[in-house]
């Protein structure tokens, strides 16, 4: 091999090593991201009307691979379905009547058929959020019960998972659900109850979805205890932001120090740069996952992988 050939070979080898280093750096960047799925974001909220593209892109950059946008009324269910068609394979929709909106169906029964039509769409992966909420009186309890039962029937007929919203109404909610056979998978979304209430759901093999409420829970028998004592197993856990609500205040004084230090700088960067108490975003989800992992004494990767797998399996996300 002459001098020129040796020189060309050296340059080629150096170039190959440089390419490999670039590839490793790229892969390292990928692995820095937790791969997570947000099973509850209210992106039809008017707070996102001006910059939704940026909100979705930030979520993707932060590691949120897929988002479920909840429909809580006929109007928002229709809008959630529209978003799922604008952002295919990223956004999936749900169709439901939130307990607060139950009276709208009672007052205008014909609108129920619009909801049924929306729920049948392929992009709509769940029925709900539906259920009972006795903390506020936006709809009378009897109206809530009536519309909840109709949504249970719809979910059974379509064989789509059920997203359940419940506040101070567990007894009545379970009493209604126990009247139905062949219920599809059930997810108690945005759980804020006690460990005792959670056990009643887990005994029925329901799933429980958690939000940034972790930062607000100061009780000895609530969500934090579920995680710390292993009551809530990974194979029954899902995660959501409930954006634009439930901002995870990682600076909360009652948040244990080991949980605060378990949140990576990258997750805090997205949280503090783009999210506020007035407008939470899906890009805050990695921080929520890291807090859950710290409470459970598991690695963030374990929690991210388990919750993503549960979501993919439950909702048939592609």
UniProtKB/TrEMBL annotation:
GO cellular component, one term: cytosol
The entry's keywords: Cytoplasm, Exonuclease, Hydrolase, Magnesium, Metal-binding, Nuclease
Gene3D superfamilies in the record: Metal-dependent hydrolases
Listed CDD domains: TatD_DNAse
Entry keyword Nuclease: yes
Binding of a divalent metal cation 1, residues: 242
Residues at which a divalent metal cation 2 binds: 165
Pfam family, one: TatD_DNase
GO molecular function (one): single-stranded DNA 3'-5' DNA exonuclease activity
Protein family membership: Belongs to the metallo-dependent hydrolases superfamily. TatD-type hydrolase family.
Function: Deoxyribonuclease which catalyzes (in vitro) the decatenation of kinetoplast DNA, which are circular DNA catenated to each other, producing linear DNA molecules. Plays an important role in chromosomal segregation and cell cycle progression during eye development probably via its DNA decatenation activity.
Protein name: Deoxyribonuclease TATDN1
Protein source organism: Drosophila ananassae
